[in-house]
Each structure stands twice: as C-alpha cells, then as structure tokens.
Amino acid sequence: MTTLTTHYENACFLRDLAENLPSIRPDTYTPELQGMLQRLADEQIAQARHDESVRAKVARARASSRPLLTMEEFEPVWKMHPRGGSRWSMRSGGRQRPHEDLLICSII
C-alpha cells in the first residue's frame, strides 16, 4: 500500500528530476520527457489528494453518531425501496445489487 508520504515524496523526486534532467542527461533530454515527468508528478499529487479525501470521508463515517439499524429494522425500509423487491438493478445491467445504492447514500 502506498502511503500519502510516498506519493508526495515521489512527486518531489519527479519534479526535481524534471528540473535537473538537462544537466543530468543532456544527450537524452527533450522537453517532452521533462513534460512527462512533470505530469507524473502531478498525478502523484492528485493521487495523494484523492487518498486524503477518501480517508477523511471514512473517518467521518466511522465517527458518525447516527443510529445504526438492525436487520429487523432495515428489512421493512428496504421492502419499501423502489427496487427493494427486485434482486438486481436494471440500471446497471444486473451487475449491481440494488441495496448498494441505498447503503452508499447512507454512508455519504
């Protein structure tokens, strides 16, 4: 598993490499290669920000004080859901279980 620190370290390394590439390898340096290294650094930063966002959402969900439902409490609510009676969601071609939408909405 790649940590946030690793993403930031990778981005820093890639930016330094892109900036110093002309002096490190003047024979193979091209502006396209430098641009590619900058884009890779940008991707590492974007991945770190995404990971931070996901971790924050998970932390908020875990810290939520909303009451949880037992299966006995959930079942009547589920049966009233528009797709509660069907086994598969038709919107996703039958690949997604219908209760996932309901559960995801309750997490977010």
Largest sheet: none
What is the helical fraction, as a range of percent? 55-70%
Low-confidence stretches: 86-108
The gyration radius over C-alpha positions equals 23 Å
Q: What's the number of extended β-strand segments?
A: 0
Distance between the termini: 24 Å
- Per DSSP, what share of the residues sits in E-state strands of 2 or more residues? under 5%
Mean pLDDT: 79
Please provide the ordered H/E string of secondary-structure elements: HHHH
Helix count, DSSP H or I runs of 4 or more residues: 4
What does this structure look like?
With 108 residues, the chain is mainly α. The chain contains 4 helices and no strands. α1 runs antiparallel to α2. The longest helix is centred in the middle third of the chain and has 33 residues. It is elongated. 6% of the residues are buried. The C terminus is likely disordered.
Name its key features:
108 residues; single chain; mainly alpha
Short synopsis of the structure:
The chain has helices at residues 4-24, 31-63, 71-80, 99-107. By secondary structure, it is an all-alpha fold.
Question: How are the SSEs ordered, and which strands pair?
Answer:
Layout lengths: L3 H21 L6 H33 L7 H10 L18 H9 L1
